[in-house]
Write a structure and sequence with these properties.
single chain; 328 residues; mainly beta; AttH-like fold; 13-stranded antiparallel sheet; eight-stranded mixed sheet; 1 helix; 53% strand; globular; disordered N terminus
């Protein structure tokens, strides 16, 4: 069955390029002047900007209590002793088994871009990722000395994009003042094979995701709350954008404004956290895609997603991941 990617636009493709570039990110912050980029100047979505975080995740489509989330950071938000380069990973190996690990600080990070695909090595950590030139596949590697070993392989099934537009040169990459976001893998068929603390976590039916975010201020200083998520149900890959209450500036006036996100709070002292369910409506051509996420596991914020076309077929189901933050 052919998947449809639903967020703002469909059928977007990125032309391959043959150029090659390399960037070395030092392990400590600098007081030198910096320039932050928010207008796309190429089709290379994962090239480093400033204060970057590359995020990867995968959820089993059969059982959302099996999942993995990894963040490769080059950001002062993660500074300890002025060092900015490390990797965090969260592995869910069943309903009540959460494993976490943080790498030692990297000696440096090396980012190499071939064509449109960017690969990165956090030197000395055992953590890296590599992408094909056309960005159709990406593999995340974990090896010694990192305490978690194995790999996660993403095979794209949905086109890349920026916050409210296709991934095109000249597009805005800013989803809020001071914050940039590029989504190279909104949805991917994903194979996970990792070992943690003697436990093997392996599934070949994963729903994968990868993005790059960057900023020149702290997110909690900019917004009071936000929600974000992605999943797959029936023929649809869905990614709902941020639902924010901004403290500074205004959200961009774009097609994103047609998306509705409703959250139902969980009971006090709930074991699943503060959110019990999410309902998302995304306008698409002359239709509205409706998705309802019921939280099953708060450890990495995952659950069962159901929905379909409003006033049409609504009995599709699948798995999803989401994030919710409130500074109130």
């Amino acid at each position: 069955m052919k998947l449809l990617y639903i967020t703002l636009l469909l059928g977007i493709s990125i032309a391959s390029a043959r150029s090659t570039s390399s960037v070395i990110i030092p392990p400590t912050t600098s007081n030198d002047p910096t320039h932050i980029e928010f207008i796309a100047s190429s089709n290379k979505l994962n090239t480093p900007k400033i204060f970057n975080v590359w995020t990867f995740d995968a959820i089993s489509s059969k059982d959302p209590s099996y999942s993995v989330l990894a963040a490769f950071s080059a950001s002062p938000e993660d500074v300890s002793n002025n060092n900015t380069l490390n990797v965090d990973i969260y592995v869910q190996a069943g309903p009540d088994k959460l494993y976490t690990a943080t790498s030692k600080f990297a000696e440096f990070a090396e980012l190499n871009t071939h064509g449109n695909g960017t690969s990165g090595v956090w030197k000395g950590t055992g953590c890296s990722f590599s992408a094909s030139e056309d960005m159709s596949t990406m593999t995340i590697h974990f090896t010694h000395p990192f305490e978690i070993t194995g790999s996660v392989v993403l095979n794209a099934v949905a086109p890349p994009h920026y916050p409210c537009s296709p991934a095109e040169i000249g597009a805005s990459m800013e989803f809020l003042p001071h914050f940039g976001w590029a989504n190279a893998f909104p949805d991917a068929k994903t194979n996970v094979d990792i070992k943690v603390n003697g436990t093997q976590v392996k599934f070949e039916d994963g729903i994968g995701y990868q993005d790059l975010s960057w900023a020149d201020i702290n997110l909690e200083d900019a917004v009071e709350s936000y929600s974000w998520g992605h999943g797959r149900f029936g023929p649809y890959s869905i990614l709902w954008p941020l639902d924010m209450s901004p403290k500074i500036g205004e959200l961009l006036s774009t097609p994103c404004s047609g998306v509705i996100v409703e959250m139902e709070a969980a009971a006090p002292n709930s074991t699943i956290g503060s959110i019990q369910s999410l309902r998302v409506e995304i306008p698409f051509e002359n239709q509205v895609i409706v998705a309802h996420l019921t939280v099953k596991n708060i450890l990495i914020n995952e659950g069962v997603i159901k929905g379909g076309v409003k006033d049409g077929k609504m009995d599709y189901s699948g798995s999803a991941a989401f994030e919710y933050l409130s500074s109130a």
